[in-house]
């Protein structure tokens, strides 16, 4: 299968935010936004929008947001009586700023981008995290890979090389990799030539094609997903580093919504949006193992303290993106 080369852009986080938000804002403006006076005023108890907008960044295995989140939209609409719209964002920075502006009511974040949103006052309140089973403890890993035949065997070999990252606010695609490089006394901004690929799949494919000397992504993308999709073959890349366990990717609701609606949405995510509940209610599409959800099982509860490890890595790396 032919691969499309990524744009080789050494991004500045602020520029990414500005450009991505221009696209996000235009689409979100078609729904109710803060300027119309429709969103709720959070603890002030103001009116809520007629349309709930959900923002998500597409991944290699989940590129059609409307289709992948159709069951979630259906259940939310049934339970709340409101419409649901989708916003396919181009970066986590865009999602953060859209939620801060009240243009997005529910946002699917990475662990790092959630911490940035929460700690920068974007008004993000946890709903839960995407779980593969009802007993899924959550968490995943970041890995570094190099092309087949590369002489690089560990992160110290990345010094002075072209290195692919995912996004300035990506947990496994930038923050934890930055910590790993710093342990090798390599500045992630100056000790390498950073290239932001825009997606975990794009980062791995750029490594395989030799556009980057090495790159970072989730472990599942490097070892499973691209091979399963046929875009990579076993042996096209070699994994040379693995991070410590990273907490799971959460979904957060905007605190601009009324407390009543926020409570209702949290209840929907934790008690109705899972395979067991959908089967029990008779709403499960029996032709799909996941009942039409964008994950194998559903959502589980999580506390903000679970992300304190992310904050600790921010303290270690002093990443500019931590203070976005």
From TrEMBL:
InterPro entries: PhnD. SUPFAM superfamilies: Periplasmic binding protein-like II. One of its GO terms (cellular component) is ATP-binding cassette (ABC) transporter complex. Keywords: Signal. Residues 1-22 form the signal peptide. It comes from the Bacteria. Residues 30-51 are annotated as: Disordered. One of its GO terms (biological process) is transmembrane transport. Belongs to the phosphate/phosphite/phosphonate binding protein family. This is Phosphonate transport system substrate-binding protein.
